[in-house]
Write a structure and sequence with these properties.
- The protein has 715 residues and is mainly alpha-helical.
- It has a domain of 456 residues: Amino acid/polyamine transporter I.
- Helix content is 57%, strand content 1%.
- A two-stranded antiparallel ribbon has the order 1-2.
- Strand 1 and strand 2 form a beta hairpin.
- It is globular.
Length: 715
């Protein structure tokens, strides 16, 4: 390793590179430490070699900024696992699997996993780790693509507003479960109508305009072997022969107080409003100290749901009829693969369950040390995510099989997804079990923690992205905590519209448009295209090599170049062609103004990417080529390991940046030897990373040992 005081030479023309003298560097570091109101950097100024490429007036944006780092590697693992192993794994994947051909559905699911889920997941984590920046400022790597970061911020902000409402429902059900008899088990309560019966046969249950929830008709089932037990309050004449179940009426009338439509918002349901407030308070205290608090909370919130899932799985498979449910879940129907909708369902499930294109994974990766093995982490976490989805199917369908056997109907009559599964189907099945109160409490605790993890991790991603945009203002004193409180308060106030009588219609509007598969596919395409084709897939792969200490087999690189862009493009256009406006419960058609609001929610994130790119291009100076080169050249902070070497790739062809050694015509003989050499020395920081127990800030070291056989490829 060269002496820190030795002159540095450019590999392009062997000329000395202008260096910052130690006294000036000391002054800059002292100013940065004072502005950040934190501990001084652990690196000595004499050890820093910073190449002057920008004016001193740019110090405020380019000077080293101290950021938090994960205290332990497991903090990152559990945070990511908790963030993307959520409600979708439990209530959506099992339903999609049975609906789309059972075991046959695993084929398109695996294809989308390999070509979409894992590559984008790894791309986002490695981008954040390399840049040590949040979801927006990480795109300093390719300034033209900064709109991708802003689009992700909009999507995750809207997602955070409505996703937490599910937690409010779960909290409400959890509180109501602490009774000897579950309140949704029987009719006869003040919220029940004369049409409520404890058991009934689905064939005689007619859909009416009053029956709105997604699973109201699906769960209107009882045993054909049972005698229909109409309660004394049932009035066949008044109900015109229509019958509803107690669990459905509890959901619609007691919990939601559901109105007739979007134009009948009604009043705020104060019980749900308090539950929503409690959910936001919990979320706030999980993230208010940044990764210092998040890294501790996830040890419980990310592991306990897995324990609950295992308990429910063991209980489920020991119930009578469980085998029928599991058989129904897995029996393959290969003919389903000819239906394009099956492939769309597989793709949307991957994008939702991996929490990609939301900026959160970039933010979580930014708290890693530079030489963390993010490649291995992402492969392991991807298997954990998909494995959890698969195992959840056994836990859910074993119970549904039991429920179907108890009622003497087919499993298809009781299977459902989404809120209907969590708040109608499964609660109904629980009432048929011995010690139903205990199982209800365990189920809703699991549901709450699964959703809570996802909620505060996504919120932390949004906060990190925003704080990194204004670090000098929000990293001072308690400004970050205050900003988080304001964000939570504003989100809560907007979320109150979803706990009104018409709140379910608002919720469905956000869910269908704001964070839809179309929006995520749009962002995913531009993410991979920007990194693979503008910055260069080979350049990014070299960055990964330097971070993890060895060069992995570059399969992922070629998926970035070809596989993911093609997959996202094809899926996006198919979704657009087959698009249908939102219809709630197959009966309520949203008014045109409601659909217009939905389009605005979707467009609010999507239009940012092209508009920002055009804006940056127009406001840049120079010729077309000069502007383009400037906007695809990284703009790194002064503290970054590659600061001052951003222009190193200008002498290489774009094909070499993209394909590297796969395009031998773009190299001379010396370059080919360099690129084909894949033996890499273990990268170790020059300085000790040991931090004090009370220290929550640490900057990346300014320089690392060079990578053996890669002296000229760290572009």
């Amino acid at each position: 390793m060269d002496s820190p005081n030795a002159p540095s030479y450019s590999s392009e023309n062997n000329e000395p590179i202008e260096m910052v003298d130690p006294e000036s560097e000391k002054r800059l570091l002292a100013e940065d430490a004072d502005m950040a109101n934190s501990n001084p950097p652990f690196a000595s100024p004499d050890d820093l070699e910073v190449k002057v490429k920008r004016s001193d007036s740019d110090v405020d944006s380019e000077a080293p900024i101290q950021r938090e780092k994960w205290a332990r590697k497991m903090d990152f693992i559990l945070s990511v696992a908790g963030g993307f192993v959520g409600l979708g794994n439990v209530w959506r994947f099992p339903y999609l699997c049975y609906k789309n051909g059972g075991g046959a559905f695993l084929i398109p699911y695996a294809i989308f996993l390999v070509l979409g889920g894992i590559p984008i997941f790894f791309l986002e984590v490695s981008l954040g780790q390399y840049m040590s920046e949040g979801g927006v400022t990480s795109w300093r790597l390719v300034p033209l693509g900064t709109g991708i970061g802003y689009a992700s911020m909009v999507i995750v902000a809207l997602l955070n507003i409505y996703y937490i409402v599910i937690l409010a429902w779960a909290i409400f059900y959890l509180f109501q479960s602490f009774t000897a008899e579950l309140p949704w088990a029987k009719c006869g309560h003040y919220w029940n109508t004369p049409c409520c019966v404890d058991t009934y046969i689905k064939s005689v249950a007619n859909n009416t305009s009053d029956n709105f929830t997604t699973v109201a008709s699906t769960l209107a089932t009882t045993a054909a072997t049972f005698t229909t037990a109409a309660t004394p309050t049932y009035n066949a004449t008044l109900c015109n022969g229509t019958k509803t179940s107690p669990e459905t009426e509890y959901w619609e009338r007691r919990v939601l107080g559901l109105s007739k439509g979007l134009d009948e918002v009604g009043t705020v349901r104060w019980e749900l409003a308090l539950c929503l407030l409690l959910a936001w308070v919990i979320c706030y205290f999980c993230i208010w100290k940044g990764v210092k608090s998040t890294g501790k909370v996830v040890y419980f919130t990310a592991t306990f749901p897995f324990l609950m899932l295992i308990i429910l799985l063991i209980r489920g498979v020991t119930l009578p009829g469980a085998a029928n449910g599991i058989r129904f879940y897995l029996t393959p129907d290969m003919s389903k693969l000819a239906d394009p909708q099956v492939w769309i369902d597989a793709g949307t499930q991957i994008f939702f369950s991996f929490a990609i294109c939301l900026g959160a994974l970039v933010s979580l990766g930014s708290y890693n040390k530079f030489n963390n093995n993010c490649y291995r982490d992402c492969v392991i976490l991807s298997l954990v995510n998909s494995g959890t989805s698969f195992i959840s199917g056994f836990a859910i369908f074993s119970v549904l099989g039991f429920m179907a056997q108890e009622q003497g109907v087919d499993v298809s009559e009781v299977a459902e997804s989404g809120p209907g599964l969590a708040f109608i189907a499964y609660p109904k099945a629980i009432t048929l079990m011995p010690a139903s109160t205990v199982w209800a409490i365990l189920f809703f605790v699991m549901l709450l923690l699964l959703g809570l993890d996802s909620q505060f991790v996504e919120t932390e991603g949004f906060i990190t992205s925003f704080v990194d945009l204004f670090p000098r203002q929000l990293r001072r004193g308690y400004n970050r905590e205050i900003f988080i409180a304001i964000t939570c308060a504003v989100s809560y106030l907007i979320g109150l519209t979803m706990v009104t009588n018409g709140g379910m219609y608002v919720f469905q509007l956000f869910d269908y448009y704001a964070a839809s598969g179309v929006c995520l596919l749009w962002v995913a395409f531009f993410e991979t295209f920007t990194i693979a084709w503008l910055y260069g897939a080979e350049r990014m792969w070299v960055n990964v090599t330097r971070m993890i200490g060895y060069r992995p087999i570059p399969i992922m690189k070629y998926i970035w170049i070809v596989g993911t862009p093609l997959l996202t493009t094809a899926t996006f256009f198919y979704a657009i062609i087959k698009f249908e406006p939102l219809v709630y419960n197959k009966t309520y058609v949203y008014p045109e103004w409601g659909t217009a609001i939905g389009f605005v929610l979707a467009a609010s994130s999507m239009i940012i990417i092209p508009i920002y790119a055009v804006y940056r291009f127009i406001t840049a100076s120079g010729s077309f080529t000069e502007r383009l080169n400037m906007l695809i050249t990284p703009q790194l902070r002064r503290s970054h390991i590659d600061y001052g070497r951003e222009d190193k790739a200008q002498g290489h062809s774009q094909l070499r940046k993209v394909f590297g050694s796969c395009d031998p015509n773009s190299f001379d003989s010396d370059d080919e030897e360099v690129v084909h050499a894949i033996t890499v020395k273990s990268i170790q920081p020059k300085f000790d990373f040991n931090e004090g127990e009370n220290s929550s800030h640490a900057s990346d070291p300014p320089a690392y040992d060079t990578v053996e056989n890669y002296p000229n490829t760290a572009f």
